[in-house]
UniProtKB/TrEMBL annotation:
The keyword Transmembrane helix applies. This is PepSY domain-containing protein. The chain crosses the membrane at residues 12-39, 150-172, 193-218, 348-370, 391-411, 423-442, 449-467, 487-509. It comes from the Bacteria. Coiled coil: none annotated. Keywords: Membrane, Transmembrane, Transmembrane helix. InterPro entries: PepSY-ass_TM (IPR005625). It comes from Pseudothauera rhizosphaerae.
Length: 527
């Protein structure tokens, strides 16, 4: 540590960041990729139909079809759940679909799907085995090739140190907000510091929010005793679990159309996504209507998000559940982290903020190397082996990981559809590609490795739309014409990332080409 407070904070910021830098970069890259988890999963399952303007019967009619089916096939169930087709349904939301009507029965968790226009029962869609966009979400909070609880704890330690680095960085850089408006190109270390400052400050509130809410998300691992106390305090809430008080569900006698109309008047037109029917001992059979699960902020049951009716008379009933302020805050923080409530513009803001975080970490790691090289140059000593190794590992980790991500999408299209363990091999492809590029960067001259790996990233992402066109019928020529912006956006994002990596590779190549020329030659070119 140093004798002065700001110097101590600078020391802690530097070494705390270096210790976690590469792993934090991995967490940010995969977390950023999970912002469009649903659309990524759709792209990686090209057997699914395009999401066009959905032709469907009125919601009340769809719900009645589902109730008729459940009354015949699940008369002993303790709870029925109907998920209406909705654009805000998420891929892992209990089998919810944007294009199909879904009926479920509990506690068996039986699941049936129907055509929302005709009510005809449909077979489950047969799609290739893949973890899709969910893989990025899992990777960014529990890593891979290890016990998931161990991964969660490791990422938790990284998040704590990252928060400490943010705080110490603001303290150490006394002119950080002034420097935010300053960028000095072609100034070597000074330029890298300017980029680091700009990317740090531009999305600083987002970084604090996403790291803090990530810790809150797994509070039951990091703070088990408070989490257990909170859970026990709300364990008596209705419908938390299926116990002896739950009775077989009778089919509601009141029509659902008036209930849905009343619920829409409160929740908003077109906001109805889910319907529950259940019967508990000593209480009337009830119908609960809500938005698609997870789209509220906070994500909690209350009178503003769940509308309850008497299943016999159709009369609206007062809410018998309410979350306490502590749990409401907890659910709000979790919802902020997952961003299921977010519309596409807000999701893009999450995505761009995540990219800024990736740049912040990458520039910080590069800056660490440049500072020590400059110090060795002033002292007239050669850089140590450790410093040279870190510099090359920076290339493999920071530039190689994006290539590994691109390899994940390539594997999705190239691996045989009937291959055993196909989903796992897609992820093996990501890590194998990344590992080989780390080795490649260690063995190649550093400057050449930067340009070559970044150029490879540009090529890998830029060819994905072409690969998609050659292997499926869901390419840009189809998706753009049909107006399916979820799938089209995935291909266009690949092209955007390719352009970004190509620009970075070209910029470094030109810079180092000029640096290798005699000074007179450079003056002549400038003239």
């Amino acid at each position: 540590m140093r004798p002065y407070f700001r110097q101590s904070m600078a020391w802690l910021h530097t070494w705390g960041s270096v210790v976690i830098g590469w792993l934090l970069f991995f967490v940010f890259v995969t977390g950023t990729a999970s912002c469009f988890m649903y659309d990524t999963t759709r792209w990686m399952e090209p057997e699914r139909p395009l999401e066009l303007t959905l032709s469907q019967a009125p919601q009340a009619m769809q719900a009645e079809w589902a109730l008729d089916f459940l009354a015949r096939h699940a008369p002993a169930a303790h709870k029925w759940e109907i998920k209406l087709p909705h654009t805000r349904n998420q891929p892992d939301n209990g089998g919810a679909s944007r294009t199909r009507l879904v009926a479920r029965a509990f506690p068996e968790r039986s699941n049936w799907e129907f055509d929302p226009l005709t009510g005809q029962k449909l077979p489950p869609l047969e799609v290739r085995a893949t973890e899709g966009g969910e893989a990025f979400r899992n990777l960014h909070h529990k890593l891979y090739y290890m016990d998931e609880v161990v991964g969660i704890y490791i990422v938790g330690v990284v998040a704590v140190l990252a928060l400490a680095s943010l705080v110490t960085g603001v303290i150490a850089h006394k002119k950080i907000f002034k420097d935010f408006f300053t960028f000095r190109p072609r100034k070597g270390q000074r330029s890298w510091l300017d980029v680091h400052n700009v990317t740090s400050v531009m999305a600083l509130p987002f970084f604090v929010m996403i790291l803090w809410t990530g810790l809150v998300y797994f509070n039951h691992h990091y703070f088990p005793v408070p989490a257990e106390i909170m859970e026990s305090a709300v364990s008596d809430r209705p419908a938390r679990q299926f116990d002896a008080a739950a009775l077989p569900v009778p089919r509601p006698q009141a029509p659902l159309a008036p209930m849905i109309a009343q619920a829409e008047a409160i929740l908003g037109q077109g906001q109805i996504g889910q319907i529950w029917v259940e019967h508990r001992a000593g209480e009337p059979s009830v119908v609960d209507i809500s938005r698609p699960w997870g789209t509220e902020l906070p994500r909690t049951k209350n009178t503003d998000t769940f509308i309850r009716f008497d299943a016999l008379t159709g009369e609206r009933l007062p809410a018998t559940y309410a979350e306490g302020p502590g749990r409401t805050m907890l659910l709000a923080l979790i919802a902020l982290h997952e961003a299921w409530f977010a519309s596409y513009p807000l999701r893009w803001l999450y995505f761009l903020s995540g990219l800024l975080g990736c740049f912040m970490i990458a520039t910080g790691m590069v800056l660490w190397v440049l500072k020590r090289r400059e110090r060795h140059a002033r002292e007239g000593s050669a850089a140590s082996f450790g410093l040279r190794l870190v510099a090359r590992l920076n290339v493999g980790v920071l530039a190689g990981l994006p290539v590994g991500v691109a390899a994940y999408f390539w594997a999705n299209r190239l691996l045989p559809v009937t291959m055993d363990g196909r989903a796992e091999w897609e992820l093996h492809g990501l890590f194998a590609t990344w590992g080989w590029l780390i080795l490649y960067a260690v063995l190649r001259p550093e400057k050449r490795a930067w340009v070559e790996v970044l150029a490879l990233a540009a090529l890998a992402f830029g060819l994905i739309p072409l690969l998609n066109a050659l292997t499926t019928d869901k390419h840009l020529g189809v998706t753009l014409a049909a107006g399916d912006w979820g799938l089209a956006g995935s291909d266009l994002t690949m092209l955007g990332l390719a352009a970004m990596f190509a620009a970075m590779a070209a910029r470094l190549w030109r810079k180092w080409q000029q640096a290798g020329q005699p000074a007179a030659s450079i003056r002549e070119r400038a003239t």
